């Protein structure tokens, strides 16, 4: 799944949570009011679901980043001269850019 899909889904979840919480705040606030009790339960459920999805998304991003680091590490170990060449090239470019200042 793409990052854009996760971002869109998180945005939708946050919008749902926001709408539900606004509805709770607009209600009478009387603890004996059944509608207030139902809205509060919906808000708590929405908050719980959003927290789970955000946690899941951050776990996915962490896993992807870790996987990319391992792939890069494996590549450098399998092709050390390419790694040295890339490192030297990056160093040269950075050196030239810093020397211009």
TrEMBL record:
Taxonomy, superkingdom: Bacteria
Transmembrane segments: 81-99
GO molecular function per UniProt: ribosome binding
Domain DUF883: 10-58, 72-101
InterPro entries in UniProt: DUF883_C, DUF883_N, YqjD/ElaB
Intracellular or extracellular location(s): Cell inner membrane
Keyword Transmembrane tagged: yes
GO cellular component: plasma membrane
Keyword Cell membrane: yes
Record's keyword terms, sorted: Cell inner membrane, Cell membrane, Membrane, Transmembrane, Transmembrane helix
Membrane topology of the entry: Single-pass membrane protein
Family recorded in the similarity comment: Belongs to the ElaB/YgaM/YqjD family.
UniProt xrefs under NCBIfam families: PRK10404.1 (NF007709)
Name of this chain's protein: Protein ElaB
Source organism of this protein record: Kluyvera intermedia
Gene: elaB
């Amino acid at each position: 799944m793409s990052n854009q899909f996760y971002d869109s889904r998180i945005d939708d979840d946050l919008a749902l949570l926001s709408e539900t919480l606004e509805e709770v705040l607009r209600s009478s606030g009387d603890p004996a009011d059944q509608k207030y009790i139902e809205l509060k339960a919906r808000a708590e459920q929405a908050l719980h679901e959003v927290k789970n999805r955000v946690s899941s998304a951050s776990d996915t991003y962490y896993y992807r980043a870790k996987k990319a680091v391992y792939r890069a590490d494996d590549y450098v170990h399998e092709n050390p001269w390419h790694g040295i060449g890339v490192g030297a090239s990056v160093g040269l470019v950075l050196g030239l850019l810093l020397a211009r200042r």
